[in-house]
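Course assignment 3, question 2. Fill in each field.
Student: A.L.
Task: Predict the tertiary structure for the chain below.
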Amino acid sequence: MQFVVKILKPDSGVGLTLLDAVDAAEAAQLATARGLAVLSVGRPSLMTRLRAPRGSPFPLLLFSRELLSLLDSGITIVEAIETLVEKEGRAHVRQVLQRIVTAMRQGRSFSSALEDEPRDFAPLYVATVRASERTSNLGEALSRYIDYATQLELLRARLASAAIYPVLLMAVSLVVVLFLLGYVVPRFSHVYADMGGDLPFMSRLLLQWGQTVERDWAWLLGAVVVLAVFLARGGARLALVGMASQLWRLPAIGERMRVYQLARLYRTLGMLLRGGIAIVPALEMVSGLLSPTLRPRLVAVTREIRAGRSISHAMDAGGLTTAVAVRMLRVGERAGNMGDMMERVASFHDDEMARWAEWATRLIGPVMMLLMGLLIGGIVVLMYLPIFQLAESIR
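Answer field:
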């Protein structure tokens, strides 16, 4: 859910930013974690939603790679971004980069200029750049972010590749079922119109559906169009959120979803800690990465660490660890390299998730094929069952 937050920035005055949060209180908390003074929080108006840009997202990883290459060649940050403006062909990206150049030529810092573009530069990215400005080592910060984003993209690609076959199988099966129910069954309803109560019960229900489709097809088509518009305007996201909340309750799937989110949490925290950001501000910045199920636990962990508890103990008590993670975190505390250790934990669980996704794909594919085959075969059998019954009575 999006909220419009009116904020007071120390260097540029009053401004507005859009944040994704569960409620208004969480939106205010996210803005405060960025170091912004919150004046008010509200829902975006209809005009704000219509005016929101719907183009392709800002290529943050590509921008970081190109910027790092230009900085390594010895040119200044402003000249590097101006070079990217000149080569950029996409209007939206060029406008964003031009606004950043203008802000920096007015004397503002790079991180402050990025903060004015919350749709294109996440708070984690801004915080990483701001931390690097204290040590004058922007190149190292960009390298850390590139490694971080590359690992996340690799994990997403693995999971997406594993999901292609089941999704494709379900889509094809759904098309076949809709064709049978929307075209074939209504045609069969004419054939059996005079048989009436002589039909088996399930066949009668199926043929009644066919008659309903043929009689009220315009209403049904209108309902499908309304549903498609609803899904396109945000209903799909609400449906996915509702499905995810139900999947969290399933023991096996819910645990895998928790491990996936914890791996992303550890990788992000590791990047921030290696960038010189303290653990408490880092925990406040990453709260948006977790699902609403885990966010209250992260708040409790942050409170415990602020009170003086060790990171491993607080995260273990808050349920934000696994058996492997808690031991590796303790080693990281003793060795003083918590950032590196968190990234190792994330890599371990990323590999574990990839193996699980491959195993699940091998299992789900045949199971879905069997279920869809039974569904399609059942519809066909119910359509032809009266013919078999009639042939048996004649014989």
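Instructor remarks: Residues 338-394 form the longest helix (57 residues). The first strand starts at residue 2 and ends at 9.
Grade: pending
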